[in-house]
Amino acid sequence: MYPTISTNFSPNFTAGLNKKLSARCLVFEPGNLERKLSLYENIDADFKGNRPIAFCLNQIYYIFNKLNIKILKFTFPRFRVFNQNQLAINFKNTAFCIPETQLVLKNDLPFETGSIFQKEIDNIENLNALIENDYQNGKRSSNHFLADTIHEIMHSIFIDKIYQKYGYNGICPYTKEKYPIKNTQKDGLEIMKQLQNKRFSDKENAIIRSFLGEYAAKPINQYHEVFAEFFTKLICESLSSKTALPNKDPFENIQKYPKEFLSIIAKILNI
C-alpha cells in the first residue's frame, strides 16, 4: 500500500530509476506487451493504456527470463490496471493479488486465483518517489521502483507453490482443474486459510522488521508477506543501476543473512 505524500515531493533517481529508463517509459506501448504475454505466456493482461505499469511489468518479464530460476516462474493468469471506482470489493491497496477466484471489478466476470491488480498511476517518477518514501520510513525491504510489482508477482508465486503442493478442493472449476487434489491431509485452500492468521513470534518479528521492514511484520497473511518481501529484496538487489536488469545471481549473497533470519525463511519455504 502506498502512503499519501505531498505533490511537492521531488522525484529522484535513487530507487533504481534513471533518466534513460524514465525516457523509455514515456514511449513504451502497453499493447505490444499485452500481445506478447498472451502469445508466449498465456497471460491475459489489460493495462488500460497505462505506460508506467506496463513498462514496469515488461522490465520484470525480462528480469525473470534472464534469471531463469525454477522457483521464480513468471506465471499468473491475469493482470489488470484499475481505478478505485471500478472495484467491486472494499480494498484500499494500490496493488494486490487474489488467493481465490472472485469478483474484483464491476461489470466483469470473476478473476482466477493468482490474478494481479494494480491501480493506475500518472507517471513512473511518482511511483519511484512513493516506493522510496516507503523505504525511507522503514516500511518495505527495497526502494527499487519495480519493488511493488515484483512483490505482487511473488504473492502469485507463493499461492501457486501452495496449491501445486497440496491441490485445491474449493468451488472454482478453473482452480480445481489447474491444481488437482493431492494425497495430503489438508488441501491448499485449508493451508491458505490457516496461514491467514499465522504469525511469527515477537522475537522473530523483530528480526523480520530489521531486514524486510514493517509491512512484512504485520499480523495478517504474514507468511505471504515475508515470502514476497524477501524475494523482492533479493531480486532488486541483483539489478543493475543502469539497466534495471540482473547483473548477478540474486542468491549469491544469501549467506550474509544471520541463521536466525534464514530459519524464518525456511519455515515459509517448507510449508
Describe this structure in words.
With 271 residues, the chain is mainly α. The protein has one domain. It is 45% helix and 6% strand. The chain is built from 10 helices and 4 strands; from the N terminus they run ααβαβββααααααα. The chain has a 4-stranded mixed sheet with strand order 1-2-4-3. α3 links the parallel β1 and β2. α5 crosses α7 and α5 packs across α9. The longest helix is centred in the middle third of the chain and has 20 residues. The N terminus is likely disordered.
Q: Detail the poorly predicted runs.
A: 1-13
Specify the biggest β-sheet.
4 strands, mixed
Q: Mean pLDDT, as a whole number? A: 91
| Total discrete domains | 1
Compact overview of the structure:
This protein is mostly helical. The protein is built from 10 helices and 4 strands; from the N terminus they run H-H-E-H-E-E-E-H-H-H-H-H-H-H.
Keyword list:
45% helix, globular, disordered N terminus
SSE blueprint:
Layout lengths: L18 H8 L3 H12 L2 E3 L4 H17 L10 E5 L12 E3 L18 E4 L4 H13 L10 H20 L6 H6 L9 H9 L5 H11 L9 H16 L21 H11 L2
Parallel strand pairs: 1-2, 2-4
Antiparallel strand pairs: 3-4
Helix pairs in contact: 5-7, 5-9
